[in-house]
């Protein structure tokens, strides 16, 4: 059978790659496997149960989970194959955003994972006239369980109704509305059809490296990014279509433990995670002391001196790999064939370090509106510092002002209930405007320079691209997060969130009293002077108009929970500036 609708993926997987461990989730300390056959049976039960509840094609059903689990996958299949529309929602958004999304989408039912999320939805349910019921995956006293819907669908005699409806579903029909987390303003409902996502899955498939000598069902994926984000969700379908075993990580905090248990072959990551992994590796290597630290730093030097990505060649590289980089691979489970990186730009230096350590990273690029992949590197065609070649089924064009525009089957249907915003998102000749600045080099690789909306102009009329500078700055061990500012000002400056743990260990080595809390550490003048030293070095690599002239250290960790980072760990620039406006004014003498 051919894959034309999203739910076709599971049914084709049953035909081609039946797997006893299609999905694996950890419950109460034990990994529980769900086979392809069981997955489809459960999805059919949900479909039948939803029909009994009166769900019709086009009705909207919200899905929210604190961490991805098999129940989400079952619900997704059950919803889509009867023509209903899934509305995945980020668990960390504010009650105001929950209220807006539920009303804007006219959500009829909500399925969620746990008590904390139930309390959030209960707090706004009286304001949502369309909402008819809330079901939970966890067993919670006083709450309706999702198993009640399963029980409604227990009778298989109504399966013909499910199959009859699924036959009528057109690939161009709306499959999902994904509300972008956004860095400013209200969330936008991105409408994606079955064709949008399926075309992206099929076009991206050839970019994933294969493992010789392993059956598809033996390839293990560890999934931990939010599945409500289109990056992880598209990959979720891509892995399904290949019959891989998908293990859902418990949380980011338990990633290290889960990696050791699962020993995955593939993981999708965001640059911030790779930065954190490297920071831990570096801290461990340099704090070992004596000969171990010397060997570690020597091996890093060998790695960085390597001119071409590939297996170790020459005695130095072989020794460095044996003594140091083999341990990096063991730390990631020992089986990694690739990390798929998206959502933001990855530092070329870090990318090179991992590639040369035998840990391939395929960096790609896309947006929710493009389902999401526009371009991605592959094992055979890779250039570090780029986001690879555009997918073969897309037409990518660079406009006169450098903006990347794209046309093709994976470009979204529009913004839900917002025709004006939809019109503004496209050029006159029908290309979607990404809002990103970039260029395509002579070899066909796409380079991303910056976000068009995030570039700013100083009072001297010079444009500054903050993302590029921020990525370079985070090479400093002292800098956890940094936001370059200066719109309309005479010079760029930066708000810096120090790496408080690294700062403590540095202060201990230097016998400096730095304090214990982030607020105390951020006030330390010696720490600030040390970070300024790294900023001065960075400035030598920048044009005069781009150089960061002043910094201020922020006294808290920037997080998703406090609204300063998006769920994929991007900066919420407006929120950060508002929170630290006093520090901003201090830098500009206001």
Automatic annotation (TrEMBL):
- Keyword annotations for this protein? ATP-binding, Ligase, Nucleotide-binding
Record's SUPFAM superfamilies? Acetyl-CoA synthetase-like (SSF56801)
- What Pfam family is a match, any one? AMP-binding_C_3
**InterPro entries (UniProt xref):** AMP-binding, AMP-binding_CS, AMP-dep_synth/lig_dom, ANL_N_sf
| EC supergroup of this enzyme | ligase
Example GO molecular function: long-chain fatty acid-CoA ligase activity
Indicate the segments forming the AMP-dependent synthetase/ligase domain, all copies: 12-416
Question: A GO CC term?
Answer: membrane
Enzyme Commission number(s) of this protein:
6.2.1.3
Question: Know the name of this protein?
Answer: Long-chain-fatty-acid--CoA ligase FadD15
* Source organism (scientific name): Chryseobacterium taklimakanense
